[in-house]
Amino acid sequence: MAGDDGGSLFDFDQATYDADEKVKIICLGDSAVGKSKLMERFLMDGYRPQQLSTYALTLYKYSTTIDGKTVLVDFWDTAGQERFQSMHPSYYHKAHACIMVFDVQRKITYKNLTNWYRELREYRPEIPCIVVANKIDADMKVTQRNFNFAKKQGLPLYYVSAADGTNVVKLFKDAIKLAMSYKQNSSDFMDEVLQELENFELEKKEGTSDKEDDLLQEMDQQLA
Amino acid sequence: MSYVAKRCGVKFSPPAIVLIYEDADTGKMRQRIMPVRNFSKFSDCSRAAERLKNSLRHSPYLEGVSQEQLERLHTVLRDHLLGRPLLTPRPDPGDEDLNKLEDEELACRKAQMDELFERNRRREEDPDFVYDLEVEFPESDAREPCSWDEDESDDAF
């Protein structure tokens, strides 16, 4: 049986994301496409995110009200981890939506969306994903162009600028809505499998320690 | 007296703009070193360039040098004060994979991008600031294809 200690072991655990009013939204994309700048523009000045530097992870906690209910949102930002061109599986774990960003001034960041998207779908086959064309302030003409990647994958495409603020707030509000509706209607097979695995682990008590649990436990301590 | 500017450059220590020019009266090539005073890493390069261009002492020599060029040279001086490396010719920025750069290099490239970001930035204090700024762009059918999609065969690799 999991006692108090066992419970806290799974607290951060991303099990908190099972609570009704809490969602996890992850940001993906190459270095320097403006992921953090977008977060900062949405949350505005003075907002201090939590740096989990050991995990190359930045956590932006945000709360909002939807239909009279308080919703807690954790935005996960990569903090340099993207430079390994791959993210740790726990980054994707239990995410409810994804914001995938490229820089309209750098073709390679657009081309690399294919890799990011492939990895996202390995872990989260069903979650809503928004493609973001950032830095349109640098060249407004790009808004007249069609970026086929989004269309091909059937994903919504947003033209935004973290600098002048175009469509940034709309992007995040829509992402939260998508995350909430995914959560409420999810029949994600992976979710169910993971849930089963977790129940199984819990039954085995706190002695279990596969790699991810260790990581989550350490994260828990850093957050505390 | 008239002077024909030939080349213009910078000296870092002490900071100065250097002009190579021809003295039209004598036909001789000469070098003029114009110290850049009261200039720090926080200085406005465009104003410093304007000041030099209009200075009583130097303006007769700088007629053939555009203010834009003087501004660029001041930017080189300022970047030096900031400890940034000189801008070297670089590969097409669209094709360079920044994921592969070292920390310092990446920070430097981000600083360069930040210049544009700051220039185009709307701040909360700005009178025309709108937090939730929504702009609709034409629907996807009306859009033109993007040249970045032309080499789709890449995906096969």
In brief:
The complex is a heterodimer of chains A (224) and B (157). By secondary structure, chain A is of the alpha/beta class. Chain A has nine helices and eight strands.
Describe the secondary structure blueprint for this structure.
The complex is a heterodimer of chains A (224) and B (157).
Chain A: H1 4-9, E1 22-28, H2 35-43, E2 50-52, E3 57-66, E4 69-77, H3 89-92, E5 97-103, H4 107-111, H5 113-123, E6 129-134, E7 145-146, H6 148-153, E8 157-159, H7 168-185, H8 189-203, H9 211-223
Parallel strand pairs in A: 1-4, 1-5, 5-6, 6-8
Antiparallel strand pairs in A: 2-3, 3-4
Chain B: E1 3-11, E2 16-23, E3 28-35, H1 45-54, H2 67-81, H3 103-120, E4 144-145
Antiparallel strand pairs in B: 1-2, 2-3
Helix pairs in contact in B: 1-2
What's the CATH topology name of chain A?
Rossmann fold
How much helix is in the residues of chain B?
25-40%
Low-confidence stretches of chain A: 1-11, 205-209
The helix/strand class of chain A is: alpha/beta
Sum up the overall morphology of chain B in one term.
elongated
Order of helices and strands of chain A: HEHEEEHEHHEEHEHHH
Sheet with the most strands, sense and barrel status of chain B: 3 strands, antiparallel
The CATH homologous superfamily of chain A is called P-loop containing nucleotide triphosphate hydrolases
Tally of separate domains of chain B:
2
Q: Could you spell the SSE succession of chain B in H and E letters?
A: EEEHHHE
Supply the CATH class of chain A: Alpha Beta
Radius of gyration of chain A (Å): 18 Å
The number of E-state strands of chain A comes to 8
Protein name (chain A): RAB, member of RAS oncogene family-like 2
InterPro entries (chain A): P-loop_NTPase, RabL2, Small_GTP-bd, Small_GTPase
Keywords (chain A): GTP-binding, Nucleotide-binding
Pfam family, one (chain A): Ras
